Amino acid sequence: YSEMGRPSIAPEMLLRAMLLQAFYSIRSERQLMERLECDLLSRWFVGLGVDEPVWDHSTFSRNRDRLLEGDIAASFLAAVLSQPRVRKLLSTEHFSVDGTLIEAWASMKSFRPKDGSGEPPEPPSGRNAEVDFRGETRSNATHASTTDPDAKLYRKGLGKEAKLYFMGHALMENRSGLLVGTCLTPADGHAERVAALAMIEPHADRPRPITVGADKAFDAEDFVNELRTMNVTPHVAQNTSGRRSAIDGRTTRHRGYAASQRIRKRIEEAFGWIKTVAGLRRTMLRGLAKVGWTFAFTAAAYNLIRLPKLLAASP
Known about the structure:
Distance between the termini: 51 Å
Order of helices and strands: HHHHHHEEEEEEHEHEHHHH
Radius of gyration: 22 Å
């Protein structure tokens, strides 16, 4: 081997360091390296000796593409859930699904017409260009971000401002509240239902029907019918605001429906941890693949945070 360049670093050491970054809300790889420089417990967890030098922060950027190619985040999540003691905690019949918005690492000034028109004038040296959006109609059909083309303009609700977002989706089992599947898509009004079907399908191949709890955004006739075709009982909250719900009394009369509606809200705890503690309220990466990898990895980190108490309480 050539003696030029930096020495290689074992991938598992990098993954351990990234877990520390999620556990302790460390905002950047530079700060992570500063912590490893002086924190002996972090060094022990990662596998660095007391007198070994820490890595350069750019090591993570250079190795992130390799981790993407190997789909390491999804494999790591699956490996955590496949442990024998963990499998006993998981429900194989009752699930909940939901989605959350992740703000993209892109400014609204980068959201420009796709045809190249409306370019701002050349700004003075050292300043951003002045842009006036008032009265301008912008949409994903005609505009795209020059910083992160995968990010889409989306509004949380009426009266809310529109921003560039991704949409993260998660599937939770209802017994212990652990995440068993994740997916990231461009922010779109139909993305939640499409992603939910993709995550549910691998768990639906059972002789007995499984149940899936969800909020009112999933109360759509095509989604409910698709679930029933997959031998899944849809425990979806009824949306009766000026419309007819796709969920009728055949489903709501059972006690299991009320239990699913109560437990499904626990998925918000996972989203809260991922966005607040792990720092994914606004991602610092660009591109659907990289942000999706980070979302899946932080979901595995969330499971690891919850598992010690769950395992201690289990017989």
